[in-house]
Amino acid sequence: MNNLGKTIAVLGSGLNKIYPEENKKLYNKILENDGCIISEYSSETEINKRNFPRRNEIISALSSGVLVIEARYRSGSIITANRAFKQGKEVFAIPSNIDSKLGVGTNRLIQKGASLVIEPNDILKKLKIDKNSNIKQEWKYEEKIVPNIYKKLYSAMGNMPIDINILCTITDLPIQEVSKQLTMLELNGYIKALPGGMFIRI
After folding, report:
1. What is the pLDDT of residue 92?
2. What are the residues whose beta carbons fall under 8 Å from the beta carbon of 24, sequence distance 6 or more?
3. Which residue has the higher pLDDT, 177 or 73?
4. β-bridge partners, 194
5. Statement to judge: residues 157 and 133 lie in one domain
């Protein structure tokens, strides 16, 4: 994210249940920088470790490839890599000393068929990306001119659906005010209401 890329975070809980709690600042920073937070669970779904394998499957599905740097024999990273194998994605792993507990997983992945990585170019070559080309893609939405009274709220919305409670957090406005402004923005054709209390720019 610090390199001006676009970050997609996948939650194993509802959008209003940030876990761990100290990630709230990161959560807001992703949204403020045109990234997005996604979850297949309803907004108030509590964290449950049984949701993590499914979350990891979504992460690998969104990716061109998965790189595992360190991993124990049984870990979330290994689950993600195995899901990527099943999805036909490229899997990469950095080799490790055979005596390292955190290297067992990566060495096993290489044994299973993951591409061994010793430098970034190994990944670029496998994915057929020219390191000299401009691989950064612009991700833009049309910026409409909205009345100043609604501008703070409208600016907080990116080009992905966003929950009304998250908008309250970002804008620091009470839910009654956010709800009223969202109604006016929708009536004037700036946004669209979606099921589950979600909204998106038009």
Report:
1. 96
2. 18
3. 177
4. 198
5. no
Per-residue tokens: 89: 């994605």
Burial class (CB in 10 A: 0-12, 13-18, 19+), 186: middle
Question: How many independent structural domains does the chain possess?
Answer: 2
Residue 168, domain extent: 148-201
Tokens of 163: 């929950």
Listed residue (90, 87, 44) closest to 66, CA to CA: 90
Integer Cα distance of 152 and 197 in angstroms: 19
pLDDT at 84 over 80: yes
CATH number, domain containing residue 123: 3.40.50.450
b/e 1-20 (16+ beta carbons within 10 angstroms → b): eeeeeeeebbbbbbbbbbee
pLDDT of residue 29: 87
Residue 9 near residue 33 (C-beta atoms within 8 A): no
CA angle in degrees (0–180, nearest 5) for 9-11-15: 100
Query: Whose CA is closest to 189, among 142, 156, 152?
Result: 142
